[in-house]
Amino acid sequence: MMTNHSMDFFMQLHLTERCNLKCKHCYQTGRKVDELTFPEVADLVKETAETLKEWKKLYDIEYSPSFNVTGGEPFLRNDIFDILAEIGHRGFDIYLLTNGILINKKKAEALFNLGVKGVQVSIEGPENIHDSIRGKDSFSGSMEGINNLLDAGLRVTLNTTLSSVNAGHFMDIIGISSRLGVRRIGFSRLVP
C-alpha cells in the first residue's frame, strides 16, 4: 500500500453543446446533440464519488475532488442549479466555466450559496476585440456577469484564448482584470 497523501482529482463535465454565442475560435460543433438528463448526471457524479472512495481504500490515497462544469454554456441548462447541488452534495468542489452573460445577481448569489469555489469567465481582450471574436455586445454582458459574481463574493478568473487577433492586447486583459478586482487570469491555447 502507498503512504497516505492528498491528490487533486478533477473532472471536466461538458453539460451541453448549446451556447448563446458563436465565437470565431470555438471548437464546439453547435449541433443539436442529446444531453445527459439530470438522473444521468446524478449517476455519473455518484459513481465518481464511489470510485474515489474505493481508490482511497485500495491505495490509501486522500483526494481533493472537484468538478469543472462547462458547456457550451452551462447556464442554458434549466437544471444547472440542481446539477451543481448534486455535485456539492457528493463532496466535490465546484468550479464553473462560462461566458458570464446569463449570470444575473440572483444566479450569482445562488452560486455563492451552493459553495461554488470559482467561476472562470472568458474575456478575449478589450471590448472591440472581444466583440469581434464573441459577438456584438458580448463584452458588456460578460462584464455585467463578472460584476454580479464578484458582488456575490465569488472568486472569478478571466480566461483568454490567445490568438493572433488578441495577443497584442495581453496588457489590456491585465488592465481589465485589475479594474474589475479579478485576481486571476488564465490563458488557453487555440484549438482549431
Model description:
With 192 residues, the chain is of the alpha/beta class. The chain has 6 helices and 6 strands, in the order E-H-E-H-E-H-E-H-H-E-H-E. It has a 6-stranded parallel sheet with strand order 1-2-3-4-5-6, covered by helices on one side. Strand 5 (156-161), helix 6 (170-180) and strand 6 (184-188) form a beta-alpha-beta unit. Helix 1 (38-59) runs parallel beside helix 2. The longest helix is centred in the first third of the chain and has 22 residues, at 38-59. The chain is globular and about 50 Å long.
Write the layout of secondary structure elements.
Blueprint: E1 6-14, H1 38-59, E2 62-70, H2 80-89, E3 93-98, H3 105-113, E4 118-122, H4 127-134, H5 138-151, E5 156-161, H6 170-180, E6 184-188
Parallel strand pairs: 1-2, 2-3, 3-4, 4-5, 5-6
Helix pairs in contact: 1-2, 3-5
Describe the main β-sheet briefly. Answer: 6 strands, parallel
Number of strands: 6
Rg (CA only): 18 Å
> Helices and strands: which structural class?
alpha/beta
List low-pLDDT spans: none
Give the ordered list of helices and strands: EHEHEHEHHEHE
Number of helices: 6
Shape: globular
Main sheet strand line-up? 1-2-3-4-5-6
SS strand fraction: 15-25%
- In helices, the fraction of residues equals 25-40%
Q: How far is the first residue's CA from the last residue's CA?
A: 43 Å
What's the rounded overall pLDDT mean? 93
